[in-house]
Design goal:
There is one protein chain. The protein is an alpha/beta fold. The protein is built from 13 helices and 9 strands. The protein has helices at 34-45, 65-71, 89-97, 112-119, 123-136, 155-165, 190-209, 224-230, 260-264, 277-283, 285-296, 308-311, 316-323; strands at residues 5-9, 51-55, 78-82, 102-105, 140-147, 169-174, 214-218, 241-244, 250-251. A 9-stranded mixed beta sheet has the order 7-6-5-4-3-2-1-8-9, covered by helices on one side. The radius of gyration is 21 Å and the shape is globular.
Length: 352
């Protein structure tokens, strides 16, 4: 299966310090040189992609950002994932000239106090200004809301206000125990997530039907209310998507500590532009095992589950991190960790 989507983390640098950042932005200084980045862009131009996303950190802080966007094929469908604080009319003009049609800007609450609790003091005005600049420029704007213990109570209000502002897409991202969130108890339990979705169900319907906004969600914890509200959200990491990290490492999934998680589990990480992106995707052990886990084998513990088609065992990286296997249902499943059946005891000769 060819690559159809690439997510490129141009840099790990960021001007915000979100308390839940899953890539721990700001902790890695290494990034590609100008020549290396342009060589990666050339490899991307040789692909027939359905989508390219430039992200970070804050991607606009990459030192060679303007040269990279100018070097990309204009006809590749692409978007920018940004915190919005660095957007200016001039930058938006350059993005449009390079063929960017959408921006993704995170905002955690329409209430400034709650937004700034997780994204940093006084970040709200700059984020909202960038959001309105993108909307005024006619770009397609998607807004992920990172839902945690701190802002869950304002989710319904935030969704409706964003719809009224004119955004085209809202995504409910449940904060997970990754990156900076580890140890902070920000993540909602499965019961809290289920209760929240039941509570805001009318708001989801209103946002979709009255305002025409696409509403989606992401949760590493699979649970019935999630699938009933959003349908199929199965993980297909490694099948059609590749992620290029700030130092050129190519991986199938972001829900894994980089680079330590993959290395600890024994999977070497190959890098572009030293290795061709297509070769890494098609031939590396790391991508091959993810493809097997997400496409060809039903994870143990999923037998007979009515939610298997939309779930497929949950996030494979979380299963690998927590259960040390890609081929078992995620231990975060609402049913709980899968307990392997102990082998039957063999009766020794002479035993009764």
């Amino acid at each position: 299966m060819p690559i159809s989507r690439v997510i490129w983390h141009l840099t790990n640098r960021c001007n915000l310090r979100c308390s839940y950042c899953y890539v721990s932005a700001g902790t890695h200084e290494s990034e590609l040189s100008r020549d290396e980045a342009l060589a990666v862009a050339k490899q991307i131009n040789d692909l027939e992609l359905s989508d390219l996303s430039l992200t970070g950190g804050e991607p606009t802080m990459f030192r060679h950002f303007d040269e990279v966007i100018a070097s990309l094929r204009r006809d590749i469908p692409k978007g920018l994932n940004t915190n919005g604080t660095t957007l200016t009319p001039s930058l938006i003009t350059r993005l449009a000239s390079a063929g960017f049609e959408r921006v993704t800007i995170s905002i955690d609450s329409i209430q400034q106090y709650l937004n700034d609790l997780t994204r940093g003091n006084n970040s709200y005005p700059s984020i909202l200004r960038g959001l309105k600049l993108a909307l005024d420029a006619g770009l397609w704007v998607a807004v992920p809301i990172q839902v945690s213990q701190l802002n869950a109570g304002s989710l319904a209000e935030t969704m409706l206000r964003l719809a009224e502002l004119g955004v085209q897409s809202v995504k409910i991202n449940f904060v997970e125990d990754l990156g900076y969130a580890i140890g902070k108890r920000l993540s909602l339990s499965v019961e809290e997530r289920a209760t929240l979705l039941r509570t805001i169900s009318p708001t989801i319907s209103q946002t979709r039907e009255t305002h025409g906004v696409d509403v989606s969600a992401e949760s590493s914890i699979p649970f019935p209310e999630f699938f009933e509200a959003f349908g199929e959200v199965a993980c297909y990491c490694g099948h059609h998507r590749a992620m290029i990290k700030h130092d050129g490492g190519v991986v199938p999934c972001d829900a894994m500590d980089y680079p330590g998680g993959y290395i600890e589990l024994g999977y070497p990480i190959l890098k572009v532009p030293e290795h061709p992106l297509v070769e890494i995707f098609e031939e590396s052990e790391l991508f091959s095992v993810y493809r097997d886990a997400t496409g060809f084998y039903r994870p143990r513990g999923c037998e007979g589950c009515r939610f298997y088609p939309p779930c497929r065992g949950g996030c494979r990286s979380r299963a690998l991190l927590l259960a040390r296997s890609l081929f078992v249902r995620t231990p975060l499943c609402y049913k709980g960790p899968f307990a392997e059946e102990p082998p039957a005891r063999v009766r020794e000769p002479g035993q009764t």
